[in-house]
Amino acid sequence: MKTILLTGFEPFGGEHNNPSWEAVRRLDGKHLHDGSRIVAALLPCAFGAALDTLAVKIRLVAPDVVVCVGQAGGRADLTIERVAINVDDAPMADNAGQQPIDAPIVANGPVGYFATLPIKAIVQALHAKGIPASVSQTAGTYVCNHVFYGLMHMASSRHAIQHAGFVHIPYLPEQAAAHRGAPSMSLAMMMDALMILLETTISVKHDSHVSGGSTH
Ligand code: PCA
Q1: 21 with 12: CB under 8 angstroms?
Q2: Catalytic site positions
Q3: How far apart are CA 112 and CA 70, in angstroms?
Q4: 144 Cα nearest atom in ligand 1
Q5: Domain boundaries, the chain
């Protein structure tokens, strides 16, 4: 039985809600098939503060698995992030009014970290349930990548964390209605997808050797 820390973000960029928190908060206290328990936490959409909050939660919850979830408006499917990079380059101010440009997240830290989730097996498990999903080769350079990199940096020295990674999810239908032509996914499907992702993470011993790559 494991403890899973699952985080979502507060709304940003003028949105009224953030699908990541809407989905994650509804999974708080839920159990996986083996009895592992989910603990949900909300992160501010702010450089620095988001990682401070995550660090406090990790200390309090002592999780075996940490998965952070964020909104990627415009993406059409659930994207399992492969790699976090050591740079903040914000295309817009965060919720605290900060807009770092080309700043390292961890001074002298490694250029990048790979997620320690079975990203290919997760995509396969989601497809098997009819849920659109793919591996993503970039989590961007905004607050989500910042949190992903900071999480992997913490996990690299906290060996109790067996798996850690990041997932981007599309807009909710009600958000897409305000962004003409933008793709969306229902809240129920997002919640199912996150449960499948976690079940796969704790049950798969070796990730699938299938391509999740792209040419761009
Ligand atoms: N998405 C943003 C930050 C918070 C969120 O939900 C991002 O992709 O960086």
Answers
A1: no
A2: 81, 144, 168
A3: 19
A4: 9
A5: 3-203
Looking at the predicted structure, is the pLDDT value of residue 70 above 90? yes
DSSP assigned state of 73: T
Mean pLDDT across the stretch 102-128?
98
**Spatial contact of 145 and 85, defined as CB atoms under 8 Å apart:** yes
Region 144-151: what's the mean pLDDT? Answer: 99
Conformation bin of residue 101: beta by default, left when phi > 0, alpha when psi is -120 to 50: beta
From atom 9 of ligand 1, which residue's Cα is the shortest distance away? Answer: 144
- Output the 3-class SS for 10-57: CCCCCCCCCHHHHHHHCCCCCECCCCCEEEEEEECCCCCHHHHHHHHH
216 contacts: CB under 8 Å, gap ≥ 6: none
pTM above 0.90, yes or no: yes
Centre of ligand 1 from the C-alpha of residue 146, in Å: 9
Say yes or no: CB of residue 133 within 6 Å of ligand 1: no
Q: Ligand 1 centroid vs 92 CA: distance in angstroms?
A: 11
Strands annotated E in the chain = 3-9, 37-43, 65-71, 78-81, 83-85, 112-114, 133-136, 163-169
Question: The domain 3-203: what is its CATH number?
Answer: 3.40.630.20
Tell me which amino acid residue 96 is: A
Structure tokens at 156: 């690299």
CB 202 within 8 A of CB 161: no
The H or E element that residue 175 is part of is helix 173-176
Task: Looking at the CA of residue 142, tell me the nearest atom of ligand 1.
Answer: 9
